[in-house]
Design brief:
Strand order of the largest sheet: 1-2-3-5-4
Radius of gyration: 33 Å
Low-confidence stretches: 1-18
Strand content: 5-15%
Number of helices: 10
Amino acid sequence: MRGTVEIESLRTRRRPRAHRSPATALFRRLFLLNVVVFVTGAGVLALGPATVSTPVAVGELSVLTAGLALMLAVNAVLLRGSLRPLDGLTALMERVDLLRPGERVPVRGHGDVAQLVRTFNDMLDRLEAERGASSAQALAAQEGERQRIARELHDEIGQSLTAALLGLKRTVDRSPDELREELRTVQETIRGCLDEVRQVARRLRPGVLTDLGLSSALSALAADFSQATKVPVARRTDPGLSAMTAEAELVIYRIAQESLTNIARHADASRVELELLRAGDHVELRITDNGRGVGDSVEGAGIRGMRERALLIGAHLTIGPSTRGGTEVRLIIPIETIQE
């Protein structure tokens, strides 16, 4: 969590990019300095006592001018080529996001600027590795806490509500007729609370994922979504999917769960599609809707949590507009990272 706070803090401190990049500014300062040096040297040569001739002949002045222009052009080309990597380095610094890993600045040459770029790339490698390790620990602790809360809901609150229902049933059977209808209303209210507690426990700890596998868990997830929102979910699962690690299945399930939750809260969609297919050397989870779309909205904690989970299994997550005008969530997982 600390890493997330630090990244958010870095984002808040960013400033809009200036019209002139630092590399361009440095290039102009060095180039102007060289202009001063070369012009001064040419002036001393032309007007000083050590000149070729006095007064300066037109032909000699032409030669000096052409030589000066050539030196300046060569100097500009060399400086521009040497400092150009700083533009890419500055651009990457401004957009770097550890939840979207892999971006690096190409290293060209062996000079000081190349060493600076190489050091920055190495720093990103270390930061991404540390972020991945800390995210794995945080998510593992989160899953453990979810399981503990789910057990307490099921074993303690669920059993207490069940006992209350049984006691109320006995009371209803012995109650006078004028109170029986009111007691039955209370009985139905408690039964509804018990059902909600069980649904919350299932969302916190998807037992069907452990017992029946990912395909059945996604089917149950889609059914719960349709029951709660009255929005149909068209599912398509590749029957030939090979067995995955428990971690990969949990990541896929949680990302699908968060995607459906976001659709229910924000999309105002009338149709949803959920697909889990194998395509070549990777497995692809795709969830699309025909709702309002993401637009220019800022990514919230839910989506950032999805990105953190994707990093745990080396997957690539994209969230953007779908062909139907809604939103498409696409998770691409390399096969070699999730096979048992």
